[in-house]
User: Fold this.
Amino acid sequence: MKTSKPIEKTITVPLKQEEAYDFFTNNLDKWWPSLDETVDIDPKFGGIIQRNGPDEGPEILGRITHIDPGKSLTFTWQKGDAVVELLLTFTQTEDGTRVDLIELPLAFVDAVAACRWIPSPDEILLAFRSCAVPVMA
Assistant:
């Protein structure tokens, strides 16, 4: 079995902590970094993360393994031929909310999906940051 070091990424978005968490979990259609597919999260313990592509049926990408609404979310994620765990924390700062993402390797599996595009932690956070803006009332 292959192993690798955790990948750690951090961004800051100009939203309050609860708003950033809500935007991440409930508005993927507004920020997901692929134009030809959608991804849905069922934000509860055991909930699934599902991809819906234009030419294929729904595909489960991961499952929620820990959730602290408004503060943190942990889920498994199929990344090519590997299964990783992503830990996201949302922390209020003076400038908005710091979003920390840690990718931990779990296991490597045989998968036909190894050739398809899976966004990296950078791509996920950059897409989220570019769309996470305050809504003016």
Q: What stands out?
A: Residues 108-117 have pLDDT under 50 and may be disordered.
